[in-house]
């Protein structure tokens, strides 16, 4: 996933000090500089459904990356707005498995 992220950044032509190649992962503090410069359309184009990511750690990392991007790129968005945008991305990219999991988890665990 990090390789895809680095490739996406390279594709949009961002340059920053100490640029990492696709073979080596990028590390902080450069991550925040890169993430803050990704516009909405580019983020949308590079979005992957969580079910397409290999393991739970990759899905968790992807969600954290989204939240960091939204917070840096749109500081005026509150938490609810970030969740709404994430949900919109899931719907737009037809992430059926993740949407089904969200629907199932929205139901009360214990029926009255």
Count of DSSP strands: 0
Strand proportion, as a percent range, falls in: under 5%
Termini distance?
A: 42 Å
Overall pLDDT confidence: 75
Shape: globular
Radius of gyration (CA) equals: 16 Å
Domain count: the total is: 1
Describe it.
There is one protein chain. The protein is mainly α. The protein has one domain. It has six helices and no strands. The protein is globular and about 45 Å long. The model is unreliable at 1-29 (pLDDT under 50).
Ordered list of secondary-structure elements with their pairings:
Blueprint: H1 2-11, H2 30-36, H3 40-46, H4 56-73, H5 79-92, H6 96-105
A few lines on this structure:
The protein is an all-alpha fold and 112 residues long. It has six helices and no strands.
List its salient traits.
single chain, 112 residues, mainly alpha, 6 helices, 0% strand, disordered N terminus
